Amino acid sequence: MNQDAKDLLVRGAAQLGVELTPAQVGRFALFAAELRKWNRKINLTAITTEREIALKHFVDSLSLCRVVHKGGRLLDLGSGGGFPVIPFAIVHPSSESVSVDAVEKKVIFQRHVGRTLGLHHFMAIHARGEELAGRFAGHFDWVVSRAFTDIPTFVRMSLPLLAPGGRIVAMKGQAGRDEAETSRSALASLGVELREVMEFPLPLSGDHRCLIVMGRREG
Questions:
Q1: Stretch 179-203: mean pLDDT, rounded?
Q2: Sequence-separated (6 or more) residues with CB below 8 Å from residue 115
Q3: Are 26 and 1 in contact (CB under 8 A)?
């Protein structure tokens, strides 16, 4: 990444409460370089300029830290090019971070990035989310997705994998709150309730973001 993109990343992260170290900025820059290089061979993203990658992938992914700010075992369902899981792993290197995607080429890319960046607690798995329950039943403190699928489908996939007291986080855009509200009855039938709907403009770009936090109904 050029210096302008690095500055945008640092400023955007700071506005989200994430203070990046120079070593972390270096890992983000290396991630961006690998993303652009691999994207010429396989379709990872339509976002290709360094500035856009810094804002629309990296800062956007780090917005998850407004909710997941203490680490914990995290699963990213349908992670594509590694978002938000790899940015999360960069800022929480000691937390277990697992990525799942059904497209093998994307998983191969993520594994390459994990090795290149030295993310020792990161794992990328080629599978469908529905196939994970046998291996990871009740395992994760956080199950997250970024514009992956509709909320009820995401929650049904997540529940078998969620640890007691764990949370499910759907990262959505402009229509996130409306989708959350219309999903209430479907969530109730699954024994799940909305815990928080956090809306905010993404730093620097101003794009609307919504974090929808859900958990098992208590009592």
A1: 96
A2: none
A3: no
